[in-house]
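lol forgot to send this yesterday, sorry. struct tokens for the thing we talked abt
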């Protein structure tokens, strides 16, 4: 799924240790869209590298396009749904530079 909106709040980083003994890092942030209904999303970022990159490049007030997965987990008979981001792009019209176009020399022999 994908939404476009403005980052309105960044929550504190959470850390912990999994059952396997591996360290994990997670951060949540709120994105508000311009839709009339269902316009506030709390999205999670998992992984130390992703959390660090988010802190480096995104801040409150940025317009972003967020691509995410919807995950539902069961714990003790209760169900919890989370939105886990796997890509965040700026939506301000700022894009990464595109590579130079390849010249089409169809008249030339390839050898």
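and heres what i got for the seq, position by position
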């Amino acid at each position: 799924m994908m939404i476009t909106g403005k980052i309105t709040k960044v929550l504190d980083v959470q850390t912990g240790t999994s059952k396997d003994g591996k360290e994990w890092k997670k951060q949540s942030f709120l994105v508000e869209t311009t839709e009339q209904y269902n316009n506030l999303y709390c999205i999670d970022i998992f992984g130390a590298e992703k959390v660090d990159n988010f802190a480096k490049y995104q801040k409150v007030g940025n317009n972003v396009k967020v691509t995410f997965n919807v995950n539902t987990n069961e714990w003790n008979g209760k169900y919890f749904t989370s939105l886990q981001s796997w890509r965040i792009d700026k939506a301000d019209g700022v894009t990464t530079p595109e590579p130079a176009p390849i010249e089409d020399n169809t008249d030339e022999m390839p050898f």
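The beta strands are 2-10, 14-17, 23-32, 40-46, 63-75, 78-90. anyway ping me if u want another try
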